[in-house]
Amino acid sequence: xxxxxxxxxxxxxxxxxxxxxxxxxxxxxxxxxxxxxxxxxxxxxxxxxxxxxxxxxxxxxxxxxxxxxxxxxxxxxxxxxxxxxxxxxxxxxxxxxxxxxxxxxxxxxxxx
Amino acid sequence: xxxxxxxxxxxxxxxxxxxxxxxxxxxxxxxxxxxxxxxxxxxxxxxxxxxxxxxxxxxxxxxxxxxxxxxxxxxxxxxxxxxxxxxxxxxxxxxxxxxxxxxxxxxxx
Lengths: 112, 109
Hints:
By secondary structure, chain A is mainly beta. In chain A, about 0% of the residues lie in helices and about 45% in strands.
């Protein structure tokens, strides 16, 4: 089934540890996004990529980095996790900047 | 700043009709989206409006007034499975999506 796969589904991480959240899509979409979702807040964009080889900063990029080596993969790295990064992380993709977003099932991350 | 306002929570009865409102103030406008998100799941796309007026898709309809910065999602013949959060999002002049915090809809039998 075509779509977006995120891994892991959930993770408990000690503060200060490094962590990479994986995201892979098989729809050949050009644009990919990483969002975090916290209770009472709207989805907040962390980083995005309009096409393979390019990335950009979103609303809340600090403490996160991304890469886009190819069309399908868009990993998100937390270099040194802090408790405020406890959240649900969604990866999404779209065919172009004007198309609806398709979301992965999310990664629930707890930083202790 | 850019802002999307939606009611935090609404309650409706199975079989009834409910209207979820969304008002926005953004830097430019390039379309408005509605998404449905069941608890613990990913958001899924419901509707898209870029021109004023009503878009109908089965039991769901979405309305847009660009001059008023206003949209609503209308759900008819409510079913228990419609219990979910409904997210309003607007694309600004840079084609970035600005998201509302979502409206949690509770359906009672």
